[in-house]
Design goal:
By secondary structure, the chain is α/β, with parallel strands linked by helices. Helices cover about 40% and strands about 15% of the residues. The protein has a domain at about 100-275: 3-Layer(aba) Sandwich (Rossmann fold), CATH 3.40.50.150. It has helices at about 40-55, 60-80, 85-100, 100-105, 125-130, 145-155, 170, 195-200, 220-225, 225-230, 270-275; strands spanning about 115, 135-140, 160-165, 180-190, 205-215, 240, 250-255. It binds S-adenosyl-L-homocysteine.
Length: about 280
């Protein structure tokens, strides 16, 4: 790990033992205080989208959603967490897109969720912030991303209810503390549906819900997932539209685990490449 990018590292006042080189990179912020406020366009987009989703969020929830975004934008220049960095677009494409699942999660009675491949925290972090119990595990295979996620959960006061792990879904699915244990697995922009079924269903309890963020057209991807669904005990996928302006082509794909998951799944990435679905 490069010292100059360690969160919370002391900000030097002049050349240290390493000379000026050590001062070239600002330490990444670990607190929201002192970060730029979000522009009005962000708040207006978020408000309009929440209204379209029929959601009214308490002020504390709203502040945490905003603080996540402020930290995301502050870290993005250094570690490339999102290609979308215009604040109103972040409100729509990241925050509202994530929160579109709230009604489904409430209807499912979900009290905790696993976000598989959370990246900058979407969709798991806004959902964990908005759900009353604030219980989630955000995993990502990339350590620099989980370093960001851990910084955010600490800064928002969400730990330990919202935990972060630098782990691959394949490894988690072999761990008896996680295999077959989760009521909900969410994933956005991680893998084609067939592969998500293989990664996500082994982590779900029977009756649990896999929720995948996708866009139309989806026919070919759904067709390619049929064999994986059959092999891993997945029920028929159900598609839910997203009511937010600008997200008309988005769909939430709901898959319930209805059957047993054979012990050999998920296969490791090399085996999946050799024998794709
Ligand atoms: N869900 C976020 C990030 C999408 S990028 C969003 O929608 O913005 C995909 C992320 O999944 C990457 O950060 C990558 O590191 C992670 N990832 C891919 N395969 C994974 C696996 N098998 N286990 C855990 N994380 C994985």
């Amino acid at each position: 790990m490069r010292r100059t990018t360690t969160p919370g590292a002391a900000r030097g006042n002049g050349p240290g033992p390493e000379g000026w080189r050590s001062g070239l990179r600002e330490p990444l912020p670990t607190r929201v205080e002192g970060l730029p406020a979000l522009p009005a366009a962000y708040g207006e987009t978020l408000d309009a989208g929440l209204e379209a989703l029929g959601e009214t969020l308490p002020p504390g929830v709203r502040t945490r959603l905003d603080d996540h975004v402020r930290l995301l934008l502050a870290w993005n220049a250094a570690i490339n967490l999102t290609a979308i960095d215009e604040p109103a677009a972040v409100a729509r494409e990241h925050v509202l897109d994530s929160l579109a699942a709230l009604p489904l999660l409430r209807a499912a009675g979900a009290d905790r969720l696993l976000d598989l491949g959370s990246g900058g925290g979407f969709p798991g972090l806004p959902l964990a912030v908005a759900l009353p119990a604030h219980r989630a595990l955000l995993i990502d295979s990339t350590a620099k991303k989980t370093r960001f996620l851990a910084t955010v959960t600490a800064a928002l006061g969400l730990d330990p209810g919202v935990a972060v792990a630098a782990a691959r879904a394949e490894a988690l699915a072999r761990d008896p503390r996680h295999r077959g244990r989760w009521p909900v697995v969410v994933a956005r922009a991680v893998a084609p549906l067939a592969e998500l079924v293989e990664l996500g269903l082994p982590l779900l309890a029977r009756g649990g819900l896999l929720l995948a963020w996708k866009r139309v057209p989806l026919e070919a991807e759904l067709a390619r997932a049929v064999a994986a669904l059959r092999a891993l005990g997945g029920g028929p996928p159900q598609l839910e539209p997203v009511a937010v302006a600008g997200l008309e082509d988005h769909r939430l794909v709901r898959i319930v685990r209805v059957g047993p998951v054979p012990a050999g799944f998920p296969r490791d990435p090399a085996a999946r490449r050799r024998r794709p679905w």
